[in-house]
Amino acid sequence: MYIPSVIQFLLNKSNKFLFLFLLPTIFYSQSDVDKILKGGEIIVNGLAILKTKKSDSESKTVNNKIVATICVKNKLAEKIAVKFSGKDEAGVAVIKEMVIQNDGKECVFEIPKGIYTYEIVLSNKEVFQKGEYKFEDEITITVKKD
């Protein structure tokens, strides 16, 4: 009498998903230790994934003084060198340099928000472009011939 009452309870409109989820466990006994361990491993891994996703989203909202990614695309026919220099809130100099091949893309990760001077130098040491930019959000800068 126990199984029909459980099935009747699970067939209720609000419990159809629960019934489909529990259907294999009602009619099939999992007595093998391997199956029980594998099920526990799946549950623990699922919880671990949920925990890491939650902590990643929290770190992005808390740390609002850092720009996560700044990328530079090179659409010129030769390689370039890009140099960003600026200061963080504590007054410490922040300098980032990168070399980008032609039709390439390079990124800088976790740079403090602020105003940076940039300098784009061609492979023959000629300054292609120079200026200032205020980094507040993630951005991709494309360098191309004007």
What does this protein structure show overall?
The protein has 146 residues and is α+β, with helices and mostly antiparallel strands. 35% of the residues lie in helices and 38% in strands. It contains 3 helices and 7 strands. It has helices at residues 2-10, 16-27, 33-62, and strands at 66-74, 80-87, 93-100, 105-112, 114-122, 127-135, 139-143. It has a 4-stranded antiparallel sheet, with no helix packed on it. β5 and β6 form a beta hairpin.
- Percent of residues in beta strands: 35-45%
Let me know the number of strands: 7
**N-end to C-end Cα span:** 82 Å
| Biggest sheet strand line-up | 3-2-5-6
Low-confidence stretches: 54-62
Q: From N to C, what is the helix and strand string?
A: HHHEEEEEEE
Question: What value does the average pLDDT take?
Answer: 78
**Form type:** elongated
Category by helix and strand content: alpha+beta
Fraction of residues in helix: 25-40%
Biggest sheet character:
4 strands, antiparallel
Rg over CA atoms, rounded to whole Å, is 28 Å
Number of helices: 3
